[in-house]
What we know:
Distance between the termini: 32 Å
Order of helices and strands: EHHEHHEEHEHEEHHEHEE
Number of strands: 10
Helix content: 25-40%
Largest sheet: 10 strands, mixed
Structural class: alpha/beta
Strand order of the largest sheet: 4-3-5-2-1-6-8-9-7-10
Shape: globular
Amino acid sequence: MSTGTSGQPYKRILLKLSGEVLAGSQKSGFDFQVIKSLVAQVAEIVELGTEVVLVIGGGNIFRGQAAAEEGMDRVTADYMGMMATIINGHALQDFLEQAGLVTRLQTAIEIKSVAEPFIRRKAFRHLEKKRVVIMAGGTGNPYFTTDTTAALRAVELNADIIFKATKVDGIYEEDPVKNPQARRYSKISYIEAIQKQLKVMDMTAFSLCMDNSMPIQVFDINAKDNLKRAVQGDDVGTLVSDQEGCEYYER
């Protein structure tokens, strides 16, 4: 594992954001205060010397799987969902650049007038130049989630870790809404997560991470300084890795 310029354990991270995070407390659309807060957190870790790949979902605008369940052709619905991620990518790019960060938006679906196509070597070059690289358009294929996009891009671009930024503070042994006594894991292995049927990511994405020993850290992006603390190696949320054994937070 490489080491960042300020001594943090992660030099290059992939930050996975769901579209729902951009909506904040709303069910859809954008909460611009939430986006500004996210951008401030990203700017802070870039200042530390961290190289950032950002993968964005589109659920705040359109969810392909939900539309398919209502009778829409699945392939058509998934392509619409991929285009929603490109809209979100543009929103993030605009606010990141307003904050003084240099960015590049790359998409798996070619749309040359507004974004670069995903080219691995170009992405490496942007990261070396300390540009924030935003990945949109999913994998460019239907039937794959943005979780799979995150896993694939993290492996392709030699990221040290995937940060799955959510609205929850980690992974629990049971649904904490149904069981308030459920314990939250601080660390758990891939195998144990599968055995316990914990839904960290969809199985395609999770298997790709497990096969390539790509650690996943799940945490609440809305909590103050969580992203910075995660980059610096603090115990934030839940870390999923190939290290055997699980650990819980003390109550």
